[in-house]
């Protein structure tokens, strides 16, 4: 009997209907899936019915259990099971184009999602996260949840919260409601900006989310004031009131200030 480890964010899904709903949401042409955190393998088992799977699992205690459960699939190459911390993967999660499907460990979910969004082999994600996090990734301007995560995902993805998942569907039950969201990539960051510089820029923009953007970017006050006027954005606009296109335009004009910071 495996005891769930809190520090690895282990809340195992024990509801078949939710697993099927996740499978239904996967684009039909998908033939290569990366799963982070297969856990006890319930989702993995269904993923293997539709695609090749590469799974990263950090918990060494789960590895022999998964090796036994999927012995056939591992032998025939349908499943590649890696005992590895997914956050430590250098470069791509896979050498081929893939979809990321996962019930993510919540303690590290935003980091893994951003890593996948920046990974040019990733075609998109269907992931379960804390509802609060899904709202951030799928937020639009003027919504209170709109933050740098929403700007980054909106820049390159079609985004949707698919459904909520009650804590009762897990063992052990988490304290929060979860949501499954889909982020389907339509572009790469490379086509729009230097992503490292742009992330630094957004960090400044949302430094104090409820303050005015002009205050958050006060180091470049005069320049920002000029840019806001040229874009017809009110001077006292707050970071969550500014749309994704405007963020790109403001960045374009301030780009020299954020290069190689
Ligand atoms: N997929 C299973 C399910 O739906 O029941 C388990 C999901 S559980 C929320 C998260 C899983 O991610 C656990 O198996 C945990 O051990 C694993 N995990 C946690 N941190 C990880 C990391 N950094 N890299 C890879 N796996 C990780």
UniProtKB/TrEMBL annotation:
Protein's cellular compartments: Cytoplasm
Record's keyword annotation contains Cytoplasm: yes
Gene Ontology annotations for the cellular component aspect, listed alphabetically: cytosol
A Pfam family of this chain: RrnaAD
EC class of the enzyme, as a word: transferase
Domain of life: Bacteria
Key words, A-Z: Cytoplasm, Methyltransferase, RNA-binding, rRNA processing, S-adenosyl-L-methionine, Transferase
Protein's name in the database: Ribosomal RNA small subunit methyltransferase A
């Amino acid at each position: 009997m495996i005891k769930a480890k809190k520090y690895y964010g282990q809340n195992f899904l024990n509801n078949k209907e939710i697993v099927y709903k996740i499978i239904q949401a996967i684009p039909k042409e998908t033939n290569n899936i990366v799963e982070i955190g297969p856990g006890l393998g319930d989702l993995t088992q269904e993923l293997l019915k539709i695609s090749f799977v590469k799974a990263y699992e950090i918990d060494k205690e789960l590895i022999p259990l998964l090796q036994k459960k999927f012995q056939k699939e591992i032998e025939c190459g349908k499943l590649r099971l890696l005992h590895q911390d997914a956050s430590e993967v250098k470069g791509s999660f896979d050498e081929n184009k893939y979809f990321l499907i996962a019930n993510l460990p919540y303690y590290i979910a935003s980091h893994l999602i951003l890593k996948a969004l920046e990974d040019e082999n990733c075609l998109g994600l269907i992931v379960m996260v804390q509802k609060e996090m899904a709202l951030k990734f799928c937020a639009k301007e003027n919504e209170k949840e709109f933050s740098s995560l929403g700007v980054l995902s909106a820049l390159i993805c079609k985004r949707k919260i698919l459904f909520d998942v009650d804590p009762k569907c897990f063992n052990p039950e988490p304290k929060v409601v979860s949501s499954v969201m889909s982020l389907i990539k339509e572009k790469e960051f490379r086509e729009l900006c230097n992503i490292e510089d742009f992330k630094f820029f957004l960090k400044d923009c949302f430094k104090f989310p409820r303050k005015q953007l002009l205050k958050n970017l006060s180091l470049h006050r005069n320049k920002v004031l000029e840019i806001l006027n040229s874009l017809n954005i009110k001077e006292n606009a707050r970071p969550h009131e500014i749309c994704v296109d405007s963020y790109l335009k403001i960045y374009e004009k301030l780009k020299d200030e954020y290069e190689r910071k």
